[in-house]
Description:
Layout: H1 2-11, H2 17-27, E1 30-37, E2 40-45, H3 49-63, E3 66-71, E4 76-81, E5 84-94, E6 97-106, E7 109-110, H4 112-126
Antiparallel strand pairs: 1-2, 2-6, 3-4, 4-5, 5-6, 6-7
Helix pairs in contact: 1-2, 3-4
Amino acid sequence: MKNLFLIALVCAPLGAGCAAVAAGAVGGIVMTTEFTDAATYVTHLNIDAKKVWPEAKNVLQDTTLELLEVDDAIRVAKAKIDGATVTVSVEPYDIDKSTLLIKARKYGFPDGETARLVQEKIVRRLQP
């Protein structure tokens, strides 16, 4: 509990990105979340890509009726969600670790809110 308090204290001035680090410290699933631009969320997970990919596809299928394309070989899926084109990809980067990349664009502009919502839904589904 003391360690969790220290993590929260250290992350407080750094903003929203640290919320995922604190959540990862509690749940052990999320290592970090980065924002590479206004429409892209990159989340490093302590879960094998073979387990993350089916859940990511399920979230997209449950969220929209317009699943545009799915490529299981490279673990990339595109869907239309609330007018935004959302691309989700899952990449392995170590044993039992993966990277979840979510991009969203609406009318050609970055849509970080939609990307964040999809990222949160996927991470919630992965929690035990």
